[in-house]
From TrEMBL:
Coiled coil: none annotated. PANTHER family: PROSTAGLANDIN REDUCTASE (PTHR43205), PROSTAGLANDIN REDUCTASE 1 (PTHR43205:SF7). One of its GO terms (molecular function) is 2-alkenal reductase [NAD(P)H] activity. Gene3D superfamilies: Medium-chain alcohol dehydrogenases, catalytic domain, NAD(P)-binding Rossmann-like Domain. It comes from Papilio xuthus (Asian swallowtail butterfly). It catalyses: 13,14-dihydro-15-oxo-prostaglandin E1 + NADP(+) = 15-oxoprostaglandin E1 + NADPH + H(+); (5S,12S)-dihydroxy-(6E,10E,12E,14Z)-eicosatetraenoate + NADP(+) = 12-oxo-(5S)-hydroxy-(6E,8E,10E,14Z)-eicosatetraenoate + NADPH + H(+); an n-alkanal + NADP(+) = an alk-2-enal + NADPH + H(+); hexanal + NADP(+) = (E)-hex-2-enal + NADPH + H(+). Belongs to the NADP-dependent oxidoreductase L4BD family. Pfam families: ADH_N_2, ADH_zinc_N. This is Prostaglandin reductase 1. Residues 35-353 form the Enoyl reductase (ER) domain. Keywords: Acetylation, Cytoplasm, Fatty acid metabolism, Hydroxylation, Lipid metabolism, NADP, Oxidoreductase, Phosphoprotein, Prostaglandin metabolism. It is found in: Cytoplasm.
Amino acid sequence: MFNNVIFLSIARRFYSGHVGKTEARKYVLTKHFQGEPKKSDFEIVQEELPELKDGEILTEAEYLSVDPYMRAYMIGYKLPTVMIGGQVAKIIASRNDKYPVGGYVSGYFGWRTHTIYNPNIIPAKADLLPTYLLPDMSPYPVSLALGVLGMPGNTAYFGLQEICKPKAGETIAITGAAGAVGSHVGQIGKILGCRVIGFAGSDEKCEYLEKELGFDRAFNYKTVNIQKALREGAPDRVDCYFDNVGGEISSAIMNYMNKYGRVAVCGSVSSYNDPALPKVTIVQPAIVFKELKVEGFIVNRWTDRWNEGVNANLSWLREGKLKYEEKVYHGFDNMVDALVGMLRGENLGKAIVKVK
């Protein structure tokens, strides 16, 4: 009898956790962005979620991500639609014995406070990012599943190693170098034995890159002469370029690369808020005569190897080879402010929103 009571208690704790319906809040995009995102582009909508069915879990968001790609991707969505994005959420009710109450998931649930999800159902159209039960990240916070141990970390891990394929002794140049992806790329470059130079938007960020993360040189692109900075920071020219920003600085770097250089194009944040595409120096002559390899990518290309990247970055973190910074905004009502702040470059490292 005593053993039965214990079994029922454990089962109830891990397989239930919730009775009845839940009120969720979500951001619905009602206008395509013109320039910077604005609060008036969204409506915050209340939604009543149904009771759970077999196989489903109910999650409550603890951390939401804001990332540059959000600004660019939304133009392709039919409105109105829930704003896209990843989150780390706590399982508060479960009818799936593989997803216990109290565990955490990283999921592409969008800007919403509560979500019902069935891990057993494969969506007809794959999400941008996989949804998975978080491994033991101790002693680190679960928020890192949105940063160094999540999408940005894997973007750096796979983008640099699979596309640029750097060799020890080569020189890597990175734009957007103080952001979540760029700062991570630079640290992996140093782990691999490369010379690393970065471009960021303030003297404070450049000091952080050099003194804290070990970049060989970092330059404030707003105040330096880019050509002079390249000659100073990369006297043997550039072998690998990790491009997060696009624009004229990218043209300058590609024209300064060595023969057979490799370019990983991750984004073009410099133009996301511009109403018209910028005019920049032509890059095709450099690509042809230097025989450069230029390849764009989206990180979900490596979804089937996702855990490889997470585990590698976690190992480097525990070994003290990786450092991270988080810019934490507070409150679900401040999501738009966080997105705008990140696009303006307010963040050092990963920008996230703590929901409560």
